[in-house]
Amino acid sequence: MSADTLTVARGASYRSGLRELLRGANSGLLVLALVVGAGSAGFAVLFRWLIKTFTTLATGYADYAATPGASHPGLPGLGRWFLLGVPVLAGLLYGPLVHFFAREARGHGVPEVMYAVSRNGARIPPQVAAVKALASALCIGGGGSVGREGPIVQIGSALGSTVGRLVRVPEPRLRVLVACGAAGGIAATFNAPLAGVFFAMELILADFTAQSFGMVVIAAVTSAAIGRAVLGDVPFLALPQFSVEHVGQYALFAVLGLIAGIVGVAFTRVLYLIEDACDALWRGPEWLRPAVGGVLLGLLLIVLPQMYGVGYPVLGHAILGVYGIAFLLLLTVGKMVATSLTIGIGGSGGVFAPSLFIGAMIGSAFGAVAHLVLPGTAGAVGAYGLIGMGAVFAGAARAPITAVVIMFELTGEYSIILPLMTAIVLATGVSHLLSGDTIYTLKLRRRGVDLGRTETIATAARISVGDVMTDVPDGVRGDSPLPQVAAVLAQSASGVLPVLDDAGEYVGVVTARVVAEALTDGRHDTAPASLVLELPVLVAPDDHLDKAIEALDRSGCAAVPVLRDRRIVGWISYRAALSRIRARPDTNRNEVAS
Predict the structure, then answer these.
(1) Measured between alpha carbons, how far is residue 342 from residues 14, 94, 327, 337, 396 in Å?
(2) pLDDT digits (tens, 9 = 90+) for 289-325
C-alpha cells in the first residue's frame, strides 16, 4: 500500500470514528449542543442587526416605536404618510422570498417547530434559517407588528436540525438539538438563558428528562455568553423597582390574572379570525399578498404609529404610567389587530412579544383603575403592567413555567414573583376553561394536526371498535371458586376473562394477576370469582378505537369486553388494537404545518 493510500485510509477512518462519537456518545451530543448554541448566538446577533438596519432604512430611526408619528428624516414633507408605503415595499421583498424558497417561514415559526419535533422527526429544511431571518427582519423593519421570538426559535431550531442531520444522529437526539437551537436563539436574543431553556423544554420538547435538560442548558448558556459579549449584558427592560405594599393587592393581582386569561384567549381568537378573513378575501398569487395587504397595515400605522415593529419602547412607557386608561385600551385592541393583520397578510414574525405588549397595556389599565378606586391599597400601576405581561402570555400559550421564568429574567424584578405566579396560574386555568388550544397549537389543529395526541391515538380515532374486536373467550360464573378460575385463566391468551351471571349477562372481568394475588395467602381457596371482580370502562361496538385504548389503559387489563345492552358481543385487546393501527397508514405524517 502506498503512503498516499495509507494517508487517505487513515483520514477516512478518523472521520468515521469522529462521526460515530458525535452520533452515539453523550460527549458527542455535548459537543453538538455547544456548536448549536454558538451558531444560534451568531444568527441571533445577525437577526437583531438586520431588524435594526431595515428599520433604519425604512424610517430613519433604529426603533420607530420610540418616536411614533415622526416623519422620515429623508422625506420630511410626507409627515407620517410615508408609513403607507413602507409595509408595501417590505412585502414586495419578503413575499416572494418566503413563497419560492421556504414557505415554512411564513407566520409565527413556533408551531412549525412544534410540528417538526412531534410529527416530522425533527427535520427542518436548512434554508429555513436564512429565509426566516431575512423575511422576519424585513417584515418587522417594514412595520410588521410582530415579535422576534418566533423567528429566532425557528432559525435556531433549523440550525440544530441541520447540524444533527449532517452528523446523522438518531431521531431522539435530533429532537434535543432542535430544542438546543430554540433555547440558544431566545437566550442570545433576549439575554435570558433560563427563559430560553424553559421555553424549549415546555413548548418545543414538552419533555424534562435529565439528559435533554442538560444539553439545552449548555446550548442556552453558550449562546447567552456569546450574545452578551457582542450585544452587552443589559436587561430586557429598564424599570424602577416594584414591591407589594399591601396584602390586599394579592386579590387585585388575582383578578388581573383572571382578566388576562380571557384576554390571552381573545387574542388567539382575533388572530385566527383575521387570518381567516384574509384567506377568504385574497384571490391573487400568494407571493404578492404581503405587498397588497401592506396597504391596510400602512393605513393602520398612520392612525396608530405605536404599532410599528415589536413596540418595546411603547411597552416600557405603559409600565411607567405615561399613558391614560383609554389610550391603553386602544393600544390593546390596536396590537391585537395589527399583529393579526401582519400575520394574516402573510407576514413573518412571532406572537410572544405582542402578547407581552397586550399584557402590559391591559395590566397597566387595570392598575390605573384600581388606583382610582382603591388608592390606598392598589400600589404602583407599573407592577400590574409587569404581571399583565406574563399572565396574558400564559393565557395565550398556556406555558406557566415559561411565563414565570421569562418575566423574572427579562425584567429582573424578583419583588413581584409571588403575585406574578398567582396571576399566571389563574390565567392558565381560565385559558384551559375557555379554549382547548393555545395560540401555537390552534394553528396546527386547523390543519388537522393534534399535538395533544400521539399518532397512534390519532389513527385510532378513525377506526371503530366493531371493526377490530375479536371473538369473546369463554367466561366464568361469578360463583366459581378461585382455583377453578385460575386454571381457566392459565389457558387464556390475555390473562383476562369475562364474568357472567346465571342469565349469561356480563357482570365484570377477572384478571390473572388479581386472582394469583388472592390465592397467594392461602385464605381464598374457596372464595368465588365475584370477590375479585373488576369493572373496566364500558366500550361499545360503535365507539372509536381510541376510547377502547383509553379503557385498556385505565383498567390496567390486557383486554376488555365490548358490550351492547349489557351483553358481550366482542373482545378487544391491546394486541388486536395495535395490529389494526399498524395495518392502517397514518395520514398525519403527510400533514403540512406551514
Answers:
(1) 50, 13, 22, 8, 18
(2) 999 999 999 999 999 999 999 988 999 899 888 999 9
